[in-house]
């Protein structure tokens, strides 16, 4: 089956027989021609395969072109942010991400580069490699706790892969559970593996839930400390579970998982931090970072990197296709809100658009260094607050929200109630509910980190854009204000139809509009 077995095996052989990675970097070197059976034989070698998957999270080259907008998982989060209303790309530049911003990438499905193929290939590569680690659980030699540590993360990574695929290739889970989503593979795939049809969205989430449960069980039985913040520990898997529970609208689960994530993170000294303590958002060793990719200079992808697209001070792409915050979102902050430092309304390059971003900066411009932050503890508090609100616990939700806000805005207060949301994000039809307030603070706090369109999908809201917010006229796309729009759903790459006889392009391709 061409669409699956061609995915690179990411087993990255650790130097010597190292069984863990350092906090400074993942000590690995890539290979695509490794004996998988040999690599999975022992925990001391399988850790290299696990590190290989994480290395892939900040690697270019998973398609045949367009690598400047394909630099690992942050590229997909960036796409999801640009598809919302809060992030503005001021100009087309060389075209990188411009067509995502304008919802104009679906036609790229015919070739092996661009968004439809790149997204499919990236996450199925993670899934395929996680499947090898999971399959080795029964035969892998070594310390049992070490094995649980490795296999537990593999289950979590497989869940993450299907979670992202479900949000890019199908409509939202709650409104459309029986819609076709993506094929499910849970065994190692080799040449000749028979392709599978698209599973329903409900079935994909059933698999995600099963994998998350397995990951939690394994990591509970694993060694107590993780090797690096680049690895998923028990707390971070609870964090992923909380994200998934929000999409599934399992509010009690979301609250419990967020609570557990906060508790586990606290054991590592991770806690909410003042804005001044994590400026640039570029180091995993900040005390509020739960999960992120530590990237040293010789592993930097330089021009093809998240920070090169964001940091205008570098004078490169971030200065030619400036990323800005909408005027509407900026206006939601109080005068004393320290997060105002993340954007500059007085930048001379703002023109008639939004306000220049200052939130994401290279930690070292000379060496193109900057770590990719994938989960912060503040997200868990905001998740818990929303879940409490949705269960009718307004006082508890406000108390949880204030845990974040007391370190953001000394003048902030909240006495709202209720959980109503408008059908679109039009600022003229806001409901004034507590849930809306929590979501607004989430929008500000996680701008550029999480992917706004992911939240909009689960919130059943259409995207509202206007020139008053700062969006260029070419970004005022029709139809995105419909929560059920297929504009948000990627096309399946032609290569999948060519290699998978279980799929029929006439029946299984997603609508173009």
UniProtKB/TrEMBL annotation:
Residues 107-246 form the SusD-like N-terminal domain. Keywords: Cell outer membrane, Membrane, Signal. It is found in: Cell outer membrane. Residues 1-22 form the signal peptide. InterPro entries: SusD-like_N, SusD_RagB_dom, TPR-like_helical_dom_sf. Residues 346-511 form the RagB/SusD domain. SUPFAM superfamilies: TPR-like. Belongs to the SusD family. This is RagB/SusD family nutrient uptake outer membrane protein. It comes from Prevotella illustrans.
